[in-house]
User: Which sequence fits this backbone?
């Protein structure tokens, strides 16, 4: 369990560091924007890998009985989580209606996984990410004004939905090999 917690601490530290604006600016001044971005990405990826390894080796300690239809709920809602995640970085009209698509995608991912898993490692992993997403939405909304992006052609919305569904299918296909939990088959 300690490896999972260490990975989450590393990942969240990397993602919370940019909120320390003066420290971040000083680091960028010292090392440059490119090396800063490379370091940020490297720490985030290492944290993610350590999270996966820690989750895979964590002992199964039941905390609650997951919903009997939790897996069905996850399969029904996860494509929407992936569409939201993709929408954070793709031009579409999604950001005209959803202020923080990536964070909403993470929150939906976390909630669906908590409905299907009731063990301690899952509560720590998915609960931690869900809490992080919710707090980040609140902090970001308080710190930045709402500005609606310009209207995009509908074809970009279709491309976004297609990208989200393809990403979901890829993760379902690789889920067992990467995360140690086979969700289909």
Assistant:
């Amino acid at each position: 369990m300690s490896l999972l917690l260490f990975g989450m601490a590393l990942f969240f530290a990397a993602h919370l560091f940019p909120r320390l604006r003066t420290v971040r600016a000083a680091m960028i001044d010292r090392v440059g924007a490119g090396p800063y971005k490379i370091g940020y990405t490297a720490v985030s990826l290492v944290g993610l890998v350590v999270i996966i390894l820690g989750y895979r080796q964590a002992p199964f300690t039941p905390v609650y009985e997951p919903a009997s239809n939790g897996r069905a709920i996850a399969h029904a809602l996860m494509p929407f989580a992936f569409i939201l995640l993709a929408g954070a970085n793709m031009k579409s009209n999604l950001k005209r209606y959803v202020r923080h698509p990536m964070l909403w995608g993470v929150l939906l991912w976390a909630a669906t996984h908590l409905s299907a898993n009731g063990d301690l490692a899952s509560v720590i992993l998915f609960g931690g990410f869900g809490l992080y997403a919710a707090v980040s939405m609140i902090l970001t909304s308080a710190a930045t004004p709402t500005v609606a992006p310009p209207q995009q052609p509908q074809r970009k919305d279709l491309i976004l939905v297609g990208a989200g569904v393809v990403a979901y299918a890829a993760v379902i296909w690789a889920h067992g090999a990467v995360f140690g939990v086979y969700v289909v088959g």
User: Anything to note?
Assistant: DSSP finds eight helices and no strands in the chain. The longest helix spans residues 154-179. Helices lie at 2-16, 21-31, 33-57, 70-87, 94-97, 101-116, 120-143, 154-179. The chain has a mean pLDDT of 93.
